[in-house]
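User: Earlier you gave me the apo prediction for this protein. Now I'd like the version with adenosine-5'-diphosphate bound, so I can compare the two side by side. Same sequence as before, with the ligand SMILES added.
Assistant: Got it. Here's the input I'm using:
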Amino acid sequence: MSDPSMLPYNRVLLKLSGEGLMGEQSYGIDSHVLGNIVDDIADVAASGVQVCLVVGGGNIFRGLTAAGKGMDRVQGDYAGMLATVINALMLQDAFLQRAVPACVVSALSMPTVAEPYVQKKAIEHLENGRIVIFAAGTGNPFFTTDTAATLRAKEMDCDVMLKATQVDGVYSADPRKDPAATRYDELTYGEVLSKGLNVMDATAVSLAMENSLPIIVFNMHKEQAFSRVMAGQGVFTRIVPNVQ
Ligand SMILES: Nc1ncnc2c1ncn2[C@@H]1O[C@H](COP(=O)(O)OP(=O)(O)O)[C@@H](O)[C@H]1O
Ligand SMILES: O=c1ccn([C@@H]2O[C@H](COP(=O)(O)OP(=O)(O)O)[C@@H](O)[C@H]2O)c(=O)[nH]1
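And here is the structure of the complex with adenosine-5'-diphosphate:
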């Protein structure tokens, strides 16, 4: 697929699934996978696009899973948010090792570890050519990092939110469970919600819908996946206000 109508993007938010950082492992971060993703993001940033990131924490801890085993949900969600901070620090380190300027901005206050989130300051970082990594989700329990990604994308006035995930886009059913599922090239937010397509939670999709934020879903494990999607190439699904 090549879609020049998507271009050019000046400022984008990339949401990285925590689970996607595990590679073949069952927990944590695979440094090879992390390195490939960071190289890909660095290439896009070097082309002049302002890039900010939201990273998940599912490779380390999920509040809902812990609550299912008896843990208090709110405590579990705070632990999940801390997991995203670990991932954010690992990402920042990988960027800095490549001499790519990157900073971590946290929705939970931990000033010795990361800068607290201040909208205008984060925009300033982007304008100064830094990759901004948003950590700790929204800072609130009962939310997800997909919702944090949609929220920060609007706050940063991004052109698009790109969700880097484990599958090639949005399908008629979860393709990891249903081999007969078919992929959409383009969908409206309303269709995602009415068809119950669980690629993102409904809160994230509703927030994008109410604020007309285009979303692109693509597979983070394909080579140079982010660079290719930014060039309108490769396989992906766009979620938009109206399908043409
Ligand atoms: N209709 C669907 N289309 C695409 N993916 C779906 C769909 N329904 C469920 N999924 C699942 O949603 C996941 C995307 O969410 P993501 O945030 O990357 O993963 P997780 O939240 O599990 O870390 C995919 O890996 C896929 O298995
Ligand atoms: O605004 C937020 C974002 C995340 N979380 C917690 O952090 C965990 C990790 O985030 P998520 O599941 O979205 O990560 P991903 O699926 O992208 O790896 C979640 O399970 C929640 O427990 C939260 O409470 N509020």
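For your comparison, keep in mind: The chain has one domain: 4-240.
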